[in-house]
Design brief:
The complex is a heterodimer of chains A (108) and B (122).
Chain A (H helix, E strand, L loop, with lengths): L8 E4 L5 E6 L9 E5 L6 E4 L13 E6 L2 E6 L8 E8 L6 E3 L3 E5 L1
Parallel strand pairs in A: 1-9
Antiparallel strand pairs in A: 2-6, 3-4, 3-7, 5-6, 7-8, 7-9
Chain B lengths: L2 E4 L3 E3 L5 E8 L8 E6 L5 E8 L4 E4 L8 E5 L4 E6 L8 E8 L9 E4 L3 E5 L2
Parallel strand pairs in B: 2-11
Antiparallel strand pairs in B: 1-3, 3-8, 4-5, 4-9, 5-6, 7-8, 9-10, 9-11
Classes of the chains: A mainly beta (108), B mainly beta (122).
Chain lengths: 108, 122
């Protein structure tokens, strides 16, 4: 089965830049999507198609792709950005959809 | 305004059956896939499967194939997730969600229901 790999945790001080990676063999062929989930809330889509930002999502959220790794970058991290972040994508055939294991972002 | 409203929390015993629902409004229900996502306590998101209410085309994750049934009633704009025999390990929050792109099922979800907490305990 297909898997996406994320680091379990990332820590950053307020105002710094956080980078969360997601690795998967099919990422050169399939788009990635990123979600933010705060405790007790449903996930929120923050990046789609590797680097597109939905309306209403702050500009400090951006996405990029390079080979088998996609990266969610949060510039000028704020305390309110502390949350779990998940990537999502599909295998190369578009048959199986998976989420990464999630990354807990801690704002120090 | 697009909304997905899920049915309320459930407490069940092992072996019991259950069907939870997700009602869509504010968009053409038959034109978008509706997916289900599991989140076990303290754990990550898991993609379970997805249905296209227009023709009931359904896709399942291998991990959930045969364990649950996804269905939809387009006449009332409602999707369902059901179990025939619950286990304690089915205890989780279940979310329904709609992909942002109506033409594909494997894209990202831009609208989510509020979640339905299912607790299975003897």
């Amino acid at each position: 089965s297909y898997e996406l790999t994320q680091p379990p945790s990332v820590s950053v001080s307020p105002g710094q830049t956080a980078r969360i990676t997601c690795s998967g063999d099919a990422l050169p062929k399939q788009y990635a999507y990123w979600y933010q989930q705060k405790p007790g809330q449903a996930p929120v889509l923050v990046i789609y198609k590797d680097s597109e930002r939905p309306s209403g999502i702050p500009e400090r959220f951006s996405g990029s792709s390079s080979g088998t790794t996609v990266t969610l970058t949060i510039s000028g991290v704020q305390a309110e950005d502390e949350a779990d972040y998940y990537c999502q994508s599909a295998d190369s055939s578009g048959t199986f959809v998976v989420f990464g294991g999630g990354t807990k972002l801690t704002v120090l | 305004e697009v909304q997905l409203v899920q049915s309320g929390a459930e407490v069940k015993k092992p072996g019991e059956s259950l069907k939870i629902s997700c009602k869509g409004s504010g968009y053409s229900f038959t034109s978008y896939w509706i997916g289900w996502v599991r989140q076990m306590p303290g754990k990550g998101l898991e993609w379970m499967g997805i249905i296209y209410p227009g023709d009931s085309d359904t896709r399942y994750s291998p991990s959930f194939q045969g364990q649950v049934t996804i269905s939809a009633d387009k006449s009332i704009s409602t999707a369902y997730l059901q179990w025939s025999s619950l286990k304690a390990s089915d205890t989780a929050m279940y979310y329904c969600a709609r992909p942002y792109d109506s033409s594909e099922y494997y894209g990202g979800f831009d609208y989510w229901g509020q979640g339905t907490l299912v607790t299975v305990s003897s």
